[in-house]
Amino acid sequence: MKITARRLTVVCLTVLVCVAAVGCSSSAAARIEREPLTVLRNPQRPLREREEAADTAWKQSAKSPEDRAAVRATFKEMVWSSALPPSLRGQLYKLLASDTDPEAIEDTRKLTRLMIPREPSREMELYLCQTAGAKGWTDCIPALIRSYSRPVPLVKDEDRAERIALIQLSGGTPLVEVVFGVFLNPPDEDPDSPAEFRARTRADAYDVLGRLDVSGAYRKRLLEDPTLTPGDESIVALLRRSVGQLKVIPISGEELRWLERLADPKNARNAAWWSEVQGIVASMPPEKLDGLQMRHLEPVRVASIYHPDLFAKDRSMLLSELKGAVAGRKTVQRSNEAQGTVKAAKEQIELWEHGLSWPDLLTIALLDRSVRQKDFVERIFVYVDLDREDTTTEYGGLILTTQNVGDGKATTGDPGKVVAWLFPPRPGQRPNDTEFVAPEEMLLSSDRALAHFHFHVHRPRNSEVAGPSAGDLAYAARSGRDCLVFTSVGTDELDIDYYQPNGIVIDLGTVLKK
């Protein structure tokens, strides 16, 4: 066969490339065998080489306790780094967890406990949770609860790795009781932990209880147990006082902080409010107390004193009147569904009526009546103009009576008049023109508010976002508040949507600039 010069050149080059590849492969393997930790630490090396280097370093370190200690120290340092590929971090962690030395097991256990509530990677979190559950590390329960309290979009609650591990570690005890126990007696952590660690754990546990015990009924039953032995007697006394005097229990951690402010003996206005509400709810029949939550207390107070016609109606009357009122109005259904990942909530009252309690319907009726008053509408459109002029953020605020605005001195001759109080976000809390971040001063001023509100008005016609977003609904659930969103659906027309913590959304129809 005749071989041309060109074909010979190609053959030679191919041979040279193959030889070079074998040489490089051999060289890499030799380097890994000779300096595995150096290769492992080098971010310029291919991931496959670094993973092979990790295995090699672990095997070689079995020769002596000193070598194993050095390798463990390197692995632990690298496992904490979120800059590393999750697969490599997972491999390092699994190698650490495979160590059978008793001291090493205890060291990995501590590492796992510390990492679980701080870990940003869901892949890595899965390794941590599975290990804690499989090894029976019950001291990781508080850490798992803290991590479980963090929202994870697009992952169902029952599929959360933290929940699965908690159930594994609960020993057959109902999960709600396990979490309630941590809430009552949050553990201390290591000396270098934040000073407020116990308070954070307690708040996170209460947030998880809000998901496990949506109505608060289970917690009420647990509070009736006289043998409760909390680390902080005052927190149980506060909850029992709330249930006994106000007939409500806070659902979320944010509601618990809200309750603590309302019960602060140094706040004379909150103390007076508490006493007034206590007297009102004491006179209410059982059918009107059914479903009562913290968010209803101020609407109940305001309706009882300033809108007795609403307060006197039963559930069926309130529902019938609301249906009739909304039926005669223009409503606009939100169509934007967050890139198809979160469906927009339906907003028709007929779809939600069986889930609306008497306190819900009273609150909706009171808000609907208030936000359609001429003075209120005029003020809201002033705020709309301010929002449109500021392209750095959405605006929002509180809906409340004049007696609860600021120090209360704004009250003229009408303390029960319902007004909107604007709270523009702080300069550092303005992500974009389509998001509202409630400033701290707004939250601290909302103890006696009827509802929170914000705008969707960055364009004159915003019909596709007429109603709460998934983030808005999450805010209502986290804060335990009733909310309104005002959406611009025309140059001088706003659509008003009411929504509450359990995801119910009611379109109350539009209002025109007067």
Structure in words:
Mean pLDDT is 89; it is low at 8-24. The protein has a domain at 310-512. It is built from 24 helices and six strands. The longest helix has 30 residues, at 5-34. The protein is of the alpha+beta class and 514 residues long. Strands 2-1-3-4-5-6 form a six-stranded mixed β-sheet, with helices on one face. It is elongated. Helix 5 (86-97) runs parallel beside helix 7 (122-135), helix 7 (122-135) packs parallel to helix 9 and helix 11 packs across helix 14.
Number of E strands: 6
* Pattern of helices and strands: HHHHHHHHHHHHHHHHHHHHHHEEHEHEEE
Based on secondary structure, the structural category is: alpha+beta
Largest sheet: 6 strands, mixed
Strand order of the largest sheet: 2-1-3-4-5-6
Which descriptor suits the 3D outline?
elongated
- What fraction strand? 5-15%
How far apart, in Å, are the first and last alpha carbons?
Answer: 97 Å
Low-confidence stretches: 8-24
> Quick check: average pLDDT?
89
Which percent range fits the helix content? 40-55%
Q: How many H/I helical runs?
A: 24
Radius of gyration: 30 Å
